[in-house]
Each structure stands twice: as structure tokens, then as C-alpha cells.
Amino acid sequence: MHLNMLKAKIHRASVTHAELHYEGSCAIDGDLLDTSGIREYEQIHIYNVNNGERFSTYAIRADEGSGVISINGAAAHRAQPGDIIIICAYGGYSEAEAEQHKPQLVYVDRHNKITHTNRSIPKQAA
């Protein structure tokens, strides 16, 4: 059996641009891509905390250290500058791989600078 599991997450990033007439994708600060392990052109899922929109696109690299999170093309209708989003990438793992797998979680401040990373999500309290 193959399991589709969370590979990487950039948590609560701030959208800096929404470019309707740019070729579709999501430009992400290169430092965030490198730290998260999300590759350029990899499929990503974006969850907009502000409006509840959920959509998929692919990642492209923005300048390292720029803090850029740009939602481009048709997806620009689903986010605007200032929105808080969660960016996730998923991967397929065998059952044996899944037993050992821990996602790469990247947490950022409101300027999209890394505050810390983790390999697990805290248990949710009741």
C-alpha cells in the first residue's frame, strides 16, 4: 500500500502579492523552499486562513531572503496581500517509509522570516 502523507508545511505565511496576469503558480522565498524541502515546480496545496479557500498549484522560487509569497494566475482570485496561508506538499510513502516519516514543518513570522522548524505537530488538546 502507498500512503499520501504530509511531506512539508510552511505555516501561517503572509501573502505579499497576488498577480492575476502572471503565469500561474506560487512564488515562495527560496530560503523557505530550501528549509521546507519543497522543490521548485512541485505541486503544493494552499489553505487560506482568512477566507477558507483551498487550492493547489505549483511552487516557483522567489529571491532568497525576500519574504515573497506571491499567489499568481487564476489563484490570485483566492488570496490577497496580507492573507495568512498554510502551504503544504505531500508525498507518497510505502507503509515501511510511513512508519519512520516525519514532515518538515517551517514556521514563519508576519514578514515570512523563519522563526523555527519542527518535525511533528503538537497533539491537539481536547
In short:
The protein is mainly beta. 10% of the residues lie in helices and 48% in strands. A nine-stranded mixed sheet has the order 2-6-3-5-4-7-1-8-9.
Can you characterise this structure?
The chain has 2 helices and 9 strands. The protein has 126 residues and is mainly beta. A 9-stranded mixed β-sheet has the order 2-6-3-5-4-7-1-8-9. A hairpin with a 5-residue loop joins β8 and β9. It is globular and about 45 Å long. The model has no long low-confidence stretch (mean pLDDT 97).
Distance between the termini: 32 Å
- As a percent range, the share of helical residues equals 10-25%
The profile of the biggest β sheet is: 9 strands, mixed
CA radius of gyration is 14 Å
Describe the structure using short key phrases.
126 residues, mainly beta, globular
Question: Any chance you could write out the topology, listing elements then pairs?
Answer:
Elements: E1 2-14, E2 17-19, E3 25-29, H1 30-36, E4 43-48, E5 54-62, E6 69-72, E7 84-94, H2 95-100, E8 104-108, E9 114-118
